[in-house]
Known about the structure:
Immunoglobulin-like; five-stranded mixed sheet; disordered N terminus; five-stranded antiparallel sheet; single chain; mainly beta; 3 domains
Amino acid sequence: xxxxxxxxxxxxxxxxxxxxxxxxxxxxxxxxxxxxxxxxxxxxxxxxxxxxxxxxxxxxxxxxxxxxxxxxxxxxxxxxxxxxxxxxxxxxxxxxxxxxxxxxxxxxxxxxxxxxxxxxxxxxxxxxxxxxxxxxxxxxxxxxxxxxxxxxxxxxxxxxxxxxxxxxxxxxxxxxxxxxxxxxxxxxxxxxxxxxxxxxxxxxxxxxxxxxxxxxxxxxxxxxxxxxxxxxxxxxxxxxxxxxxxxxxxxxxxxxxxxxxxxxxxxxxxxxxxxxxxxxxxxxxxxxxxxxxxxxxxxxxxxxxxxxxxxxxxxxxxxxxxxxxxxxxxxxxxxxxxxx
Length: 340
């Protein structure tokens, strides 16, 4: 019998966080995303739930009291995203439901590490010691000068008290020379500090946008008795790259390629040449079922999951293979039909 068939089942759903390491930093912004793969699931509903917990009880599934997260952003119909401020220890999960049934993702445990320690955004900036402060007179540190839209970024202007008595941080667009003051508004938070050795101005930009591209300028003024008129200046340029949904790279096939191969050979089925910003992550499906990294079908992956290979082809390898590419901007898929 031949023809085209649509297989429906319960939707698969997973949860991803853009945190680095095992812990969330207190009072920092992160992005949590629920994703449902590119399979036929019918009418679909996706939502996010949370349950506060003590760190020692977070793994106890029976003790959770789940509540819906309401402040989420829907991305098309297969995923949703939450801009998350880490303030308490809790567990978060994603759920997806269609007419067949519902499934639940593994839980994401939000383990809070410390209150406002020496971490800024998702990047670690070492706090200067007394010796460091005595060596540098004026500096401007940026956590990531080539950042991507919706990242968090921290900029610190530092001036040595032995030479300067005032320091300020300014913004300059790419072309004009006019300096613009930076204020505590919307996504930007400015704090000023003073120690026995230094003056600092710290700017934290949450969910950076392409419009934040430009130069950030640190101006430091010496005492009046120094005879200096113009302040000392140091600046760094930030280039914010916009989010780009995964898409087929130049020169690659788009959809539904049919491949005929012989039995009993080692074969590379496909290269999933999807590109995007940030670099997408990849998953593979066969006939709408997720192919696990460890499987019993002689299928394995190379090139950071971009390439799918079969160790020795047989009839069980016939079917439709789908590569799913996912990043913060969205999801895209490519299909290959393999005939053995």
